[in-house]
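Please fill in the sequence for the structure shown.

STRUCTURE ENCODING:
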């Protein structure tokens, strides 16, 4: 796992966007999976800037949402489809038919999950996945539990995640309690993984994750230890509790 500590949120975002842009330039039909939440906003902004100013071409790229709230319609401003569309898709030349989100309106959840996995396989599998991390160590919506699902499934959101995500809603009661999310296996099958985290409120979980040497479903992010191509990009605030804090950009390999 490679760890990159950047000075601040802007540098973290630029670093993540540069990695994604390099992947797209190397393989224009990159199959990527992208997260939502507050953390990736700067990365998406930077990708949009690269599209406008540096001809970064998304015309062959394929994007899968990592997760989606059940049962929000795509035109609901709180839905993750809406989020992706607003923050990235409609500001680049990615083709709408190359953007995927689990169909959370279909009542046949098992079929939807199976189809989502099949769609990923039909596209050749994920080349790249960008991840955030929840305060409880979740990736996608794979919450700490006694066991984790390997593949795309219906997930119940934990109280702490509902509370954390309520900042995007007018009240915690409005936060959906379920989502369809890629499983840990879906994530681990991606050829390259980048995890980003920013800010002091992520320092505790980042520290726990970076110091973990065991894989446990109680810390879903710990499964990333099993992957051979993971880069963790954090800013100094998120690195504050990590013993190897640094004053400028620092790389560690372990
Ligand atoms: C959400 C999403 C995750 C995201 C995480 C962190 O619940 N399902 O994909 O990585 O929370 O979000 P944020 O970046 O807002 O802290």
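FILLED IN BY: designer on duty
SEQUENCE:
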């Amino acid at each position: 796992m490679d760890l990159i500590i950047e000075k601040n949120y802007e540098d973290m975002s630029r670093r993540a966007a540069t990695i994604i842009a390099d992947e797209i330039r190397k393989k224009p039909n990159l199959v990527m999976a992208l997260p939502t939440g507050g953390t990736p906003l700067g990365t998406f902004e930077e990708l949009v800037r690269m599209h406008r100013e540096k001809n970064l071409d998304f015309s062959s790229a394929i994007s899968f949402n990592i997760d989606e709230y059940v049962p929000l319609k795509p035109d609901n401003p709180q839905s993750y489809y809406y989020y992706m569309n607003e923050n990235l898709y409609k500001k680049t030349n990615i083709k709408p038919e190359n953007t995927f989100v689990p169909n959370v309106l279909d009542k046949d959840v098992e079929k939807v999950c199976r189809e989502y996995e099949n769609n990923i396989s039909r596209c050749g599998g994920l080349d790249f996945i960008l991840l955030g991390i929840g305060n409880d160590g979740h990736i996608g919506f794979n919450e700490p539990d006694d066991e984790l699902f390997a593949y795309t499934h219906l997930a119940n959101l934990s109280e702490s995640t509902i509370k954390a995500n309520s900042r995007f809603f007018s009240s915690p009661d409005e936060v959906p309690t379920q989502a369809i999310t890629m499983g840990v296996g879906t994530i681990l099958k991606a050829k390259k993984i980048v995890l980003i985290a920013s800010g002091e409120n992520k320092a505790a979980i980042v520290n726990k994750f970076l110091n973990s040497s065991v894989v446990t479903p109680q810390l879903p992010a710990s499964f990333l230890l099993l992957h051979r191509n993971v880069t963790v990009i954090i800013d100094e605030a998120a690195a504050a509790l990590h013993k190897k804090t640094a004053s400028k950009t620092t790389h560690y390999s372990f």
